[in-house]
Specification:
Elements: E1 2-6, H1 12-24, E2 28-30, H2 32-35, H3 42-51, E3 55-60, H4 70-81, E4 89-93, H5 104-107, H6 118-163, E5 167-172, E6 178-188, E7 192-199, E8 202-209, E9 214-217, H7 229-239
Parallel strand pairs: 1-2, 1-3, 3-4
Antiparallel strand pairs: 5-6, 6-7, 7-8, 8-9
Helix pairs in contact: 1-6, 3-4
Length: about 240
Amino acid sequence: MRVFLSYASEDRPIAEQIQLALAGDKNKVFFDSQSLVPGGDYNAHILKAIKDSDVFIFLISKYSIDKGCYCLTELNFARGKWPHPKDRVIPVMLSHVEFEQIPNYLRAVTVYQPEGNIPAEVLSIVLNKKASRIIAKKRGLILAGLGSSLMAFLFAILFLSLRSEQWETMGVAITGEKVSVDSKSIIGSPGKRGFTYKIGNEVVAAVADCGSKRWFAKGYSKWVEPQSKATKDMIAFVCN
């Protein structure tokens, strides 16, 4: 992961420890003097480094938020790339600063306040961000792989369900709505079953994965696990 580390010169000793911890885990860290090439436009180099980064770590101290500190310029560059800091900007409190003094952009996300070893805790935060991005990417690839064939399957189920219906009541969902399955809509192989169900008055075309006991429905972005006895019974009914 490409990391931009923003800190005040007064905080360089701890910033260097953080840089070493991150680099030790094979992250590519932009660390001012070590990362800047000789000559050229300093501001342009910094801006490019931020644009090339995956995450931006801002080390909060009384020095880094002081008016005139170049850290605030770097923060503005980061805001130019990410209008909202969610999942991209990591504010880390090095020393106590009144919350009201922290820039609003940083306060829009969790401000981390390490209680133990700061470099180790920052590395842990970055590792969690990296894992979340990998999971999200894999999920996207899985859904993309399912793509049109899955949607076509769902539309086929919905079409069949409109031809003939026989609703079987499964029980009540955690929302308090009745769950029913159209037994005549069930199609497919033993491992994957297409079916139509009702929750309340809404009719939903879905695909059940009988191995994992989950289902995917039209309009969903992920596979869903049963949260009530009614939905567990629904999957069991469809897969039997």
